[in-house]
Design brief:
alpha/beta; Rossmann fold; 3 domains; seven-stranded mixed beta sheet; 26 strands; 38% helix
Length: 700
């Protein structure tokens, strides 16, 4: 819905928090059954308003437009919280949480400029109002995905707890989000780990356009916390004195390290889900009752009644608020739009890593290694890489299902690490992939270096929102104000036989098609160790794919100690002159076997191991194909719309006229992976079938 700054009245005036902090000495007055202390002097000014008529006039005239979700009627909640927390405390909120942002201290001009898509926006105009990120104020993440902020808030809370900080993390969401699985997963994990996080449910009686009784038979939202082992409270979010008192107790509880709290703040959304005006889904009676309970006029009357403020003071404050809003809007409208030259900036830390048509940077050497080596499996190589990273950097930690000892992960790649580094650095989790990735994202945004283990890539769909909509996009949406440098390890079961359709897939194309995620897929123990160490140190999120088929069946002479293999650098595994064979992961070894087979026929094949799928080392690929004139890309993933199609297309476009034959691809059949070994091994490329494709390509 397109609308503009017809914002809730709190939003208009909350930016004045920094200007109108008038209180100099503690004083208190008893009112409305609660105590408003001297600290509330600035808070009360946040919930006083100027008339929004000028803003409405600008809207009506088409002077400015941006996406807006009104929060009229809910002003008391963030205003109160802002007075009980500081910039050091973390906040996560939703796309409709502009009132939360302003109360937290996000610059008003920067917010307007961001909403208008201007380069002076708090996030360079790249995120807009639904994706504000301002670490200076502690407003870390704003998500447009309902409920998705809760798992991320856990990660921020983990960082505070592990560093011994007294920060509190507050995650805001509406009553509608309580139906989302991500919220339940996050609450369960927070309770299990006793995290310093507050789940702030602003119950405005509406899940978008749907009434509570329509979407749940259990509207006792705060009671759900008790079922998960931690405290839940219900507060009146429209009673400023009572809410202040209740929230102070909650925040003190969490800050003291006593675990999470779920707060159900009862309020009412007077405006519509999106746009301007009143809530047109409500009856006249409901709307009238909601307006009668709204906190702003109630608070104004309370301040006058108690003698805390005079009419003149409040009138002056309202005028000042109106002036500040008008000034911020005027300056934002004069600011420059974010230019197209910014398009690929902030996708990754280094724009050179961004795939672009015709841009094929020359990257560093392939990674020739020297020194003492040991013959070990890929599983041990992965374990060694994690051990080195954890020894070197205390901010590195592992989380995932069954990652602890004695098992050391389902595949044994973490064996002994929990025993050596302790439960807080090797964290077995609930079976909850969304909670795992969200916690990793949040902790990485706060500066930690998590390694999240997702048992099989087939489970990618369970947590894809956290990966694709949050980890991948956080740097870009925030204009690099924040980023999520986590590492995610996933196993692929294909090629083993007998694991079936839900444990044997190769889903790398899902990841490579998502801007902002780097993808590594080693074919041997040497690369597994070196690339994992690079991934952990990388400033961007990296998914490390590991073939279960290679974990224990393939050994290699792996250098001892620390070494890194750079991401985005391919390696020529076998030189040749007749055809370039391009692959990665376990299929690379099938390609090497096929190359040796066709060598008996006098066909000399050059084999390139991509190693990194994002970024792809097109420079080495194209150099090789220029020499051979032919190319075949092989992967275990489904051939249709697979990565091979992208690589072949680039080769054909860049080298057209220089090729002896069009580049070709070879992948799995378009069918779910069968449980039957006989079918599976006919579905995917094998050394004999790859050799047959090579012979056909050379003859063409």
């Amino acid at each position: 819905m397109i609308a503009a700054a017809n914002c809730s009245k709190l939003w208009i005036c909350a930016a004045l928090r920094r200007k109108f902090r008038l209180c100099t000495a503690p004083k208190a007055c008893l009112c409305a059954g609660g105590i408003i202390s001297g600290e509330a002097e600035s808070w009360r000014r946040e919930i006083l308003v100027s008339s929004p008529k000028a803003i409405q006039a600008g809207l009506s005239a088409g002077k400015f437009m941006f996406t807006y979700w009104p929060m009229t009627g809910q002003e008391c909640i963030p205003a109160t919280i802002s007075q009980l927390t500081t910039e050091r405390d973390y906040m996560v909120t939703t796309y409709r949480g502009i009132h939360d942002q302003v109360a937290k201290g996000v610059d008003l001009y920067g917010m307007f400029a961001e909403a208008l898509g201007r380069e002076d926006g708090v996030n360079k105009g790249k995120g807009g109002s639904p994706h504000i990120s301002d670490p200076k104020s502690g407003s870390m993440v704003t998500t447009a995905i309902v409920g998705a902020g809760a798992p991320i808030a856990n990660g921020l809370a983990i960082s505070a707890k592990e560093r011994g900080e007294d920060r509190v993390t507050i995650v805001n969401f509406g009553d509608g989000a309580t139906s989302i699985g991500a919220v339940h997963e996050a609450m369960n994990l927070a309770g299990a780990w006793q995290l310093p996080v507050i789940f702030m449910c602003q119950n405005n009686q509406w899940g978008e356009y749907t009434r509570i009784p329509t979407y749940t038979a259990g509207p006792n939202f705060f009671g759900r916390a008790e079922a998960l082992g931690f405290k839940g409270v219900q507060l009146d979010g429209n009673d400023p004195a009572a809410f202040y008192k209740g929230m102070k107790e909650v925040i003190d509880h969490v800050r003291a390290g006593k675990g999470p709290v779920f707060v159900e703040a009862i309020t009412y959304r007077i405006g519509p889900h999106a746009g301007v005006g009143d809530n047109y889904n409500a009856t006249k009676e409901e709307l009238a009752a909601g307006k009668e309970r709204a906190p702003l006029e109630k608070t104004r009357a309370l301040l006058l009644e108690a003698g805390i403020s005079t009419e003149e003071e409040l009138t002056a404050l309202e005028a000042a608020a109106k002036a500040e809003v008008e000034d911020a809007i005027a300056r934002a409208l004069e600011s420059k739009p974010t230019p197209p030259s910014e398009t690929i900036v902030d996708v990754f830390a280094d724009p050179d890593s961004v795939p672009q048509r015709g841009h094929f940077p020359v990257r560093e050497a392939e990674g020739e290694l020297s020194g003492d080596t040991e013959s070990i499996s890929m599983a041990i190589a992965v374990r060694d890489a994690q051990h080195i990273a954890m020894t070197n950097n205390k901010e590195v930690f592992i989380l995932g299902e069954d990652v602890g000892d004695p098992q050391g992960g389902v595949f044994g790649t973490n064996k002994g690490l929990q025993t050596e580094f302790g439960d807080r650095r090797v964290r077995p989790t609930p079976i909850a992939e969304t909670a795992i990735i969200g916690a990793a994202i949040g902790s990485s945004i706060a500066g930690m270096k998590p390694i999240a283990e997702i048992m099989f890539v087939d489970f990618l769909g369970v947590c894809l929102d956290q990966i694709a909509n949050h980890a991948a996009k956080q740097r870009y949406m925030s204009g690099s104000a924040t980023h999520a440098p986590l590492t995610i390890r996933m196993q692929l079961g294909g090629g083993m036989g007998g694991f079936g359709a839900q444990h044997s897939q190769s889903l790398e194309a899902w990841l490579t098609h998502t801007p902002g995620i780097k993808v590594a897929y080693p074919s041997n123990p040497v690369d597994a160790k070196g690339m994992l160490l690079s991934a952990i140190d990388d400033p961007d999120p990296v998914v490390m794919l590991e073939s279960m088929m290679l974990l224990y069946t393939l050994k290699g002479d792996v250098p001892k100690g620390e070494y890194k293999i750079p991401l985005g650098v391919a390696k020529v595994r076998r030189p040749g002159k007749d055809l370039t064979l391009i692959s990665y992961g376990y299929m690379l070894n099938h390609c090497l076997a096929a190359a040796e087979e066709v060598a008996k026929d006098g066909i000399d094949v050059e084999v390139i191991d991509l190693r990194s799928l994002v970024p792809i080392d097109y420079h080495r690929v194209l150099d090789s194909v220029k020499k051979t004139g032919r190319a075949l890309v092989v992967h275990a993933a489904v051939e249709f719309c697979g990565l091979g199609a992208e690589i072949c297309s680039t080769i054909n476009e860049e080298l057209w006229g220089k090729l002896k034959a069009p580049a070709m691809r070879y992948g799995a059949d378009y069918a779910p992976m069968a449980y039957s070994n006989a079918i599976e091994f006919s579905q995917v490329p094998t050394p004999p079938s790859i050799a047959a494709r090579i012979r056909a390509a050379v003859k063409s």
